[in-house]
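Q: Given only this backbone (172 positions), what sequence would you predict?
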């Protein structure tokens, strides 16, 4: 899958097939995160790969808006550097986007989890105090039987402007 298709056809996956993912796939995904742009190249992230079903189940319980993590065959907990207050959120978000696109290109899916018990997850994963939990990303194959929500993408004409705000771009 080419990069443009991976970016434009990716959708979140919240229901996972009971099919394992390989370490090689997860290495590619984490490497995609490692390759994200970061301000001053500080790379203010760490990635904790979780494969243990019991830990995944606990992560699911601790993910308030991401219970589905407990059903995924793998998860990556993204940690951000507390010492980098200016850019760490933006840099980590870019790493997440890279990982989501890479996963999709490999035939896998993920969903960003925005609400979770950060301190409990940090304790569970023995995270040193310098790092805080940025998000939890489950990874796996989409359950083919699950209904996929359609997404209303805001139209290009209401999002892109030409030379001045409010002018339509003369796309061919
Ligand atoms: C910062 C952020 C936080 C999100 N948090 C959650 C979440 O807690 N639980 C969830 O199910 N989806 C979450 N999502 C996924 C969005 O709901 C999803 O990306 C959006 O509906 C668009 O769908 P699509 O990515 O399939 O195009 C989050 C996405 C972002 C970018």
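A: Predicted residues:
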């Amino acid at each position: 899958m080419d990069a443009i298709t991976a970016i434009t056809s990716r959708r979140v996956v919240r229901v996972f097939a009971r099919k394992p993912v390989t370490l090689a796939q997860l290495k590619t995904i984490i490497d995609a995160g490692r390759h994200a742009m970061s301000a001053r190249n500080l790379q203010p992230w760490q990635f904790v790969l979780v494969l243990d079903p019991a830990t995944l189940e606990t992560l699911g319980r601790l993910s308030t808006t991401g219970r589905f993590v407990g059903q995924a065959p793998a998860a990556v907990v993204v940690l951000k550097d507390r010492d980098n207050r200016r850019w760490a959120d933006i840099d980590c978000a870019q790493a997440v986007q890279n990982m989501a696109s890479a996963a999709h290109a490999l035939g896998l899916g993920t969903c960003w989890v925005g609400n979770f018990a950060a301190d409990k997850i940090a304790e569970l994963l023995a995270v040193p105090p310098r790092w805080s939990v940025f998000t939890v990303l489950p990874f796996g194959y989409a359950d083919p039987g699950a209904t996929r929500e359609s997404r209303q993408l805001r139209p290009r004409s209401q999002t892109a402007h030409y030379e001045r705000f409010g002018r339509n771009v003369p796309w061919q």
